[in-house]
Design the sequence.
């Protein structure tokens, strides 16, 4: 790996923001205007994506898992810094392919790549993105803004991540496998809705049940979910299949808590925040015991 | 590794800034006031530090290589995001030790840790820090602000990184080995000097010669260095030993270009920017050919 060459050939063409000074400097100037939030997510080969996944999908996944966090806070993505620890001896062709995916989604989400780091590693490919976002309101919509009695709503379908992982492990190119590799995430219009109506918000990335519990706890509440209302990748009436999908993670929907009875376009009501702590699950009015594992703990 | 437990036990206590919302959210709010710059550096075990280095020094090194970039731009460090890819099965005791080092230098440099990511890896320990800085002027002091005729000045001594690497490889606890593990970097007072007097500035981390060349090229100039004026870790009259130290990297001094004849406290004059492109080296008036490798290329 010739780091200087690769930076010039693949990274520099993606770096067009004035604040980056053409990557000729050690630091970049952040665009700040509205209140600025920031998130950082790391993907490790063999943990967060499969060694057999096409390289361009890895670049897209890195962007999307970070953008999902920004949209869920009622903000739009702005500047990114990218760190890549590239396995020694892995080819330039594969590096170029990762950057095809990155370029595609930097463009799609109008993100300015302003800096980062490129290093060699004896281990697995490890990518870290730091992404800033401009809040549409004066502040980000927190996990902690929920209150008892507010409705819980979700955008998108739950269960694609888990189904997709199974399919991707088999090397499939099915829609499910593709959704594991390149998650379908919320859009800027979702972010605008979140900023307009949500008292609390987060992206559901580790499993619906664990993330509902997290939002409720951060808000000092409990939560009651009516499982029959959860939009599923594989619709089912059976509690087991339903709970599997609700704990499998990698879905990148947005979960919000909303005051009052207004209709929220693009979102489906799945439950309410409660005064009683803990997670209460029902399926068509019948109590369902929460499974021992609510999702991906980290 | 129980990520949630480790985050609560080691990371959360370091997170006190309001913008971090107690790590209960997916994003952090950046402190922005003065123009905000940002840098990101990654350290990989076996590449940027030795597997035998004490864990607390790894935490300190991560902070310092990033702080050095901020100080060199005439700015002071502000907010940090930390990503750790931790080797599966490595002990909690060692994790705690990395955090002792991190805590020490977050405190020393008054940095607010506001977020990040913790993941498992099958590979080497890989740490990435994203660090913002508040500019003391209206903008960062760039590499590209130099002009022919300006003097080149340096803070600190050159060669400790290279000497220290050799010593650290032997497992020494000598001052040189210690300086490889925990680099001595510029201080906030250096940053204030940079902001006040420098037309161009950068930290010297890859070797003095290559970094002088980079600053000169970014400024559209060449550079002439009088090697006998370079402050060395091991002072010598021999060109070979001198050039070795000037190309070894990991020194984290600050290199600036200054207009006019003013005395700059804490800095030593080592040469000038020239209209003629390229790097001209002299030793007590005699021409010296630049070595084929000017430093660490990346």
Sequence:
């Amino acid at each position: 790996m010739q780091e200087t060459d690769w930076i010039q050939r693949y990274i520099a063409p993606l770096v067009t923001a004035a604040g980056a000074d053409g990557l000729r400097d050690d630091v970049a100037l952040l665009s700040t205007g509205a209140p600025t939030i920031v998130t950082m997510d790391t993907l490790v080969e063999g943990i967060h994506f499969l060694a057999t996944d096409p390289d361009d999908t890895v670049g897209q996944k890195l962007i999307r898992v970070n953008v999902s966090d920004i949209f869920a806070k009622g903000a739009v993505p702005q500047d990114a810094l990218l760190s890549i620890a590239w396995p020694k001896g892995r080819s330039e062709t594969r590096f170029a392919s990762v950057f095809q995916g990155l370029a595609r989604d930097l463009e799609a989400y109008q993100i300015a790549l302003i800096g980062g780091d490129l290093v060699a590693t004896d281990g697995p490919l490890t990518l870290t993105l730091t992404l800033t976002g401009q809040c549409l309101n004066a502040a980000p919509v927190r996990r902690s803004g929920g209150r008892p009695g507010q409705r819980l709503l979700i955008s998108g379908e739950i269960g694609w991540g888990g189904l997709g992982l199974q399919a991707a492990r088999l090397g499939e190119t099915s829609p499910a496998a593709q959704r594991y590799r390149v998650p379908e995430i919320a859009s800027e219009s979702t972010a605008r809705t979140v900023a307009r109506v949500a008292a609390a918000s987060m992206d559901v990335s580790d499993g619906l049940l664990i993330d509902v519990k997290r939002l409720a706890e951060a808000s000092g509440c409990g939560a009651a979910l009516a499982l029959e209302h959860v939009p599923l990748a594989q619709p089912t009436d059976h509690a087991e299949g339903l709970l599997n999908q609700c704990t499998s993670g990698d879905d990148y929907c947005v979960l919000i808590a909303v005051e009052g009875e207004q209709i929220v376009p693009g979102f489906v009501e799945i439950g309410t925040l409660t005064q009683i702590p803990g997670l209460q699950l029902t399926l068509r009015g019948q109590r369902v015991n929460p499974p021992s594992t609510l999702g991906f703990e980290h």
Observations:
- The longest strand of chain A covers residues 75-87.
- The mean pLDDT of chain A is 92.
